[in-house]
Write a structure and sequence with these properties.
two-stranded antiparallel ribbon, alpha+beta, 204 residues
């Protein structure tokens, strides 16, 4: 540890403080990993009203349409799928007459806003302020670096954002979503959403 008294390595200090003014920490989801997940996150963070782009119906998957990766299969991927003449569903029928409904057909879907990202940042402003104050003090008097502080901010923000997604309980999921996920935690399913939260240090 460098003692404050007689400390004269100010050129290094100014260099590190200059870096803090040149870089910022971006936290969240980055599209190059999974554009489909990015669409889901955006719809939940800000809410969305979805209507069919092609055809007359949206397909809402049930638990039977769930793939091994936790994501729903497309209707074209399921063999023997039929449409009911009485109900707006797509289903299969086994030889013994057992029916499995794979999709509900609907005209539109409204996803309510569940702002877990903004909530994490807004509710933890004091935490980030303390980290920055401690980090600048470390740079100024103890030989710390801008990279260390920026990475501390990134890892802390990621952890807080993951916690925010797990804690969020309202608005609740629609009954069909609860059936598909087998739980009523709005933003938790396979855990992929939480694991995909990360950060980057980028130029301002």
């Amino acid at each position: 540890m460098i003692k404050r008294e007689g400390y004269n390595n100010w050129d290094k200090v100014f260099e590190e403080l200059k870096k803090l003014n040149e870089y910022q920490v971006a936290v969240g989801f980055f599209g190059e990993r999974n554009s489909r997940l990015l669409t889901i996150v955006r719809a939940n963070e800000y809410g969305a009203h979805i209507v069919p782009k092609k055809g007359n119906w949206l397909t809402i998957p049930t638990r039977y349409a769930r793939g091994d990766d936790g994501l729903p299969k497309k209707p074209s991927e399921i063999e023997g799928l039929r449409r009911s003449n009485k109900k707006n569903v797509l289903y299969t029928k086994s030889k013994n007459g057992k029916i499995k409904v794979y999709f509900y057909l609907v005209k539109e879907v409204t996803i309510p806003s569940r702002p877990f990202m903004r909530t994490a940042l807004l509710e933890n402003g004091a935490t980030f302020k303390r980290l920055i104050e401690k980090g600048v003090n470390n740079i100024t008097f103890e030989g710390g670096t801008a990279d260390k502080l920026l990475n501390q901010l990134g890892t802390t923000a990621v952890a807080l954002m993951r916690q925010s997604a797990i804690r969020l309980s309202k608005p609740v999921n629609a009954p069909a979503t609860v059936d598909y996920k087998r739980s009523n935690n709005p933003l938790v399913d396979t855990g992929n959403l939480q694991r995909s939260i990360t950060y980057k240090i980028i130029p301002i």
